[in-house]
Write a structure and sequence with these properties.
mainly alpha; elongated
Length: 141
């Protein structure tokens, strides 16, 4: 008696169907992860920038103006009001961009608090949901 060592067409089709079912279950979960990672990074950046802004305020007595922007955390501002006690090394190494490659929006005085800091999300427009939602320094999300 001779045994065949190869796979039959039926066995091969069963394997392909099983792989397809696994792909249908797993792929949607994996595809959503990059958007979630970007959202978490934006939240982390906003928390770090908020801490740096609070340190700036402790040293200088006020937050940087909207015109000075977040750049005041990296380089000593040369426009009024110039801070007297600006930290020699700055408050951040660099001004981060949001995970979608756009600058964070900064407004002082803010509409929601002493300052507003936000990213417009993946679409770059106000509002939205999911990956397109605004990511802010206030507790609305």
């Amino acid at each position: 008696m001779r045994r065949d060592a190869g796979l039959t067409l039926i066995e091969l089709m069963v394997v392909v169907v099983i792989l397809a079912l696994l792909a249908v279950v797993i792929v949607p979960r994996v595809i959503d992860r990059p958007d979630q990672a970007r959202i978490v990074r934006a939240q982390s950046d906003i928390a770090a920038i908020t801490s740096a802004l609070n340190l700036y305020r402790l040293d200088t007595g006020a937050y940087p103006t909207t015109e000075q922007g977040l750049r005041a955390l990296v380089e000593r501002p040369t426009t009024a009001p110039e801070p007297a006690n600006w930290a020699s090394g700055g408050y951040l190494d660099r001004v981060p961009q949001d995970p979608w490659g756009r600058p964070y929006l900064y407004l002082v005085p803010g509409v929601r608090g002493a300052f507003d800091l936000l990213s417009r999300g993946a679409d770059g427009n106000a509002g939205g949901s999911g990956a397109d939602a605004d990511i802010t320094n206030w507790d609305e999300n």
